[in-house]
Amino acid sequence: MLPVQSNSHSLNSGILDGAEQASSVLLELTRQLIFELRPRTGRSIKLYLDNSLDHDLGLDSLSRMELVVRIERTFGVSLTDRALAGAETLRDLLSALQTAKRTDLSMPPTSLPESLPEPEGWDPAEASTLVEALDWHASLHPEQIQIICLEEATEERISYENLRQQALAIAAGLQALGLEPGQTVAIMLPTSNEYFSTYFGILFAGGVPVPIYPPARLSQIEDHVRRHAGILSNALVSILVTVPEARPVARLLEARVGGLRRVVTASELGNAGGEPTRITVRGSDIAFLQYTSGSTGNPKGVVLTHANLLANIRAISKAVDFARDDVFVSWLPLYHDMGLISTWLTSLYFGNPFVVMSPLGFLARPERWLWAIHRYRGTLSAAPNFAYELCVKRIEDRQIQGLDLSSWRVAANGAEPVLPETINRFTDRFAPYGFRPETMTPVYGLAESTVGLLCPPLNRKPLIDCIRRQPFVSFGKATPAEEEDSNPLRFVACGRPLPGHDVRIVDSAGREVGERVEGTMEFRGPSATSGYYRNPEDTRRLMNGEWLDTGDRAYMAEGEVYITGRVKDIIIRGGRNIYPHEVESAVGQVPGVRKGCVAVFGTRDPGSGTERLVIMAETRLLTAPEQDALREGISRLTVDILGEPADEVVLAPPHTVLKTSSGKIRRTASRDLYEKGMAGSGARAVQWQMIRLVLGSTLLQGRRWLGRMSHILYGAYSWLVFALVTSLTFLLTVAAMRPERARRVAHRGARLLLKLLGIACTVHGLEDLPHGRSCVLAANHASYLDGIIVLAAIPFDFSFVAKRELREHPLSRILLKGLGVQYVERFAMRQSVEDASRLTGTVGAGHSLFFFPEGTFVRTSGLRPFHLGAFVAAATASVPVVPVSLRGMRSLMRDGQWIPSRRAIVVTIGKPIEPQADAPDTFAAAIRLRDLARAEILRHCGEEDAGQGE
Question: Regarding beta strands 237-242 and 184-188, do their DSSP bridges make them parallel or antiparallel, or are they unpaired?
Fold first, then answer.
């Protein structure tokens, strides 16, 4: 039975209990809300329980939450966050009411939890990785609580040992699925215990976490799948960890991402059993890939190593003066760097308690964030500007009676433009509850600097700079405004660089500008990324020597940095710079415009040679007179702010303006929507989105199937060609009788084989071969076809040196004997020494030898250590070593692959390296030859260094 209270906004007080009466109350509450939102058209809407909250009723997120507040107040219940997140219709809300708990919203609990143990003896400088930090804490104080995970009215406490054991269980499950060190694993989980253990489980297994956000709304499913498919493909994700409810979305992603082979839940991984093989993790290893939000373009995967993370964490700790009694409180999503690094990983590293709630919990009831700070005596918390604004607008006095925010010492405000108005409104609103003005701390960071870059001095009120508009927008000069200036620009200082980091402001030519001159901000420091994952083009654009481009405009005044806007977002119109966020914030306050749903962007006007200013604003107004009046109001406001009107004001239905997962406006994507003429079409129905996704996935699967069939057919053709060419070459080689003739036959046969297989082979440096004298040739070894490539590429008389095991097969023994192959023993020491002496004599007698000094090859890329045999032979016989680099061979046919790929191969022959005449002994001369040859091969083979020479 559902209780109904009598204070229900002019509802009759005699409403009876029961589901039927509850549905009537729900419909009446909805009707009243819609009438308030749209007085002229609200009465005409037909209300049914199966009405979509988005498409049929046009309720945006704020309107939905207002409806929820009224439902809870009327029925005296508290709806769960999960129910609110999944509610798409009024019937969904009615179902949520059936399981809702009675609550007294005006009397939130204020009792403090039991005291938390204080960390002891931890020297942060000792750890070089996050894995070491967790292991250290779990070993020294295993029962200490690290995470307090809040959900509704309950909490789950997670100790360091709990976290480590759960992470190890997940690591075992990942390794059982075949996860190899260095492979990527996507995490698509909400804030929960499973998220924390999955993240460290991936690290323990040697993998690379790739956090992505789970779908929030079905109405956004198409955009979600399309964007995430690009991320997963770029990251080469092989395993996706998600919740059971998200499996349908995960399956759609699986169909679009060729390398994604498993979709699993954290519980399935944790219950797999077994012990994981602990992988050694180094500071230079990737700690995770942070894909940028895509607010200004396509998402890019920022490579962040353990060294980057720990450098940034240590720098942040100095800037905000971390103490052992600090308590972190956060609702920020863990798939973003601000929530993942600056709150959780920082607290874990230093041993501070971390109180966390779901972002949905905060958005549903912002007062929960403040009550968590009150109850747990939180000292450090961070949020974007919109969160502080939401608290001002949505929290009523009755919901925070008895609230005490006096423990809060750093309220970091970042991740989006910090507005002076928000700072003042939040400070004034919550000053009676103990919030101090100096607690508000505007900060700046970006994923390319791990997370943090700028922070102001502590215990100082935010600095707000008022500057003259005209000199700034026309010439980029931040001239202080006079007090009587009626229309200044106002920017908030984000402070100074973190310790060990540096920033500079440069002009378009890359020259550093002076005080109070706007330019592009660049930075450097130990937190700086090495680039974007598998994206060399964007990485090149990011780097300017030792400096990295932030993509933001800024100026400096008295050592303080003032961020003015994104480079790609600033609109240049008639020689003046227009800053979108200033116009967006003002237009969002116009009655009839959906707050936070305004995009201001420029679009090129070929006729005038400048940019047209377009304002796209979402509205629920439907009639032509209402929309005309709204456009006129927006135009007037634009003139007041900029001194000129917008070229076009586009009024769009709800959910047209595109946003990132963190709520930032995607101006570039919104502009693309406008230029395609789709700005007024509104959100597409969920069923049509699903149909398009399924059809698209089916087509992709079909293409993938055709690709596999083509690969199989090519494989059959390759083996047929290989059998025919090698058989003919074998017979001609045996008939040649002399090794030099046999090698010429093999050279032509190898070239014919490559031509028939469609493998292009380019050779550089043939002129450097030492004709007329013997030498030792040495090459990297990456593929089964290395010998054939060498035979085809080098028309030079030499003999291969091969392992003695190849003589065991009769056919290979006959063929290799005809080619004059020399054998070496790899395992029996005495025989190995005799073979080395024999090879030295062969080279000294004027015969050239070809070695693969790595000895063997493996599947994973990287140039392995070189054995000394080839170089001892060259040093002893006083002949040069010729380094030969094979590039592209591992992709052609790596270990375990039995069908070649059509790849372009490059063979680079280096200049001969002569033995050192004055070397102290043969061994020293051999080591020098080995190191020089290996360095030359490493320079051209296109693979990383997988170990120094032996």
Answer: parallel
Q: How far apart are CA 812 and CA 816, in angstroms?
A: 6
Is residue 677 within 8 A of residue 706, CB to CB? The reply is no
Q: Which fold has domain 464-566?
A: Luciferase; domain 3 (2.30.38)
Which ranges of 785-910 does DSSP label H, i.e. alpha helix? 786-793, 810-818, 829-844, 869-877, 889-892
Q: With beta carbons less than 8 A apart as the criterion, state whether 407 and 373 touch.
A: yes
What is the amino acid identity at position 40?
R
Report whether 657 contacts 618 (CB < 8 A). Answer: yes
What is the Cα–Cα distance from 170 to 411, expressed in whole angstroms?
Answer: 35
Which homologous superfamily is 721-940 in? Glycerol-3-phosphate (1)-acyltransferase (3.40.1130.10)
- The model's pTM is 0.64
Tokens in use for 145?
A: 């609580």
Ranking 3-12, 224-233, 361-370, 611-620 by mean pLDDT, the lowest is 3-12
Q: Length of the chain, please?
A: 950
Strand partners, 618: 652
What distance in Å separates the CA atoms of residue 933 and residue 922, rounded to the nearest whole number? Answer: 16
Q: What confidence category does residue 141 fall into, taking pLDDT thresholds of 50, 70 and 90?
A: confident
C-alpha span between 329 and 331 (Å, rounded): 7
Cα gap 497→556, rounded to integer Å: 12
Query: Do 201 and 176 contact (CB within 8 A), yes or no?
Result: no
pLDDT, tens only, 478-536: 999 998 888 888 999 999 999 999 999 999 888 999 999 999 999 999 999 999 998 89
User: Going by DSSP bridges, is the β-strand pair 610-619/648-652 parallel, antiparallel, or unpaired?
Assistant: parallel
User: Collapsing DSSP states into helix, strand and coil, what is residue 843?
Assistant: helix
- Domain 19-102 belongs in CATH node 1.25.40.10: no
pLDDT tens for 113-134 read: 444 444 455 565 678 999 999 9
With a CB cutoff of 8 Å and minimum separation 6, the contacts of 921 are none
- The CATH code of domain 575-675 reads 3.30.300.30
CA angle 683/684/689 to nearest 5° reads 135
pLDDT band for position 449 (cuts 50, 70, 90): very high
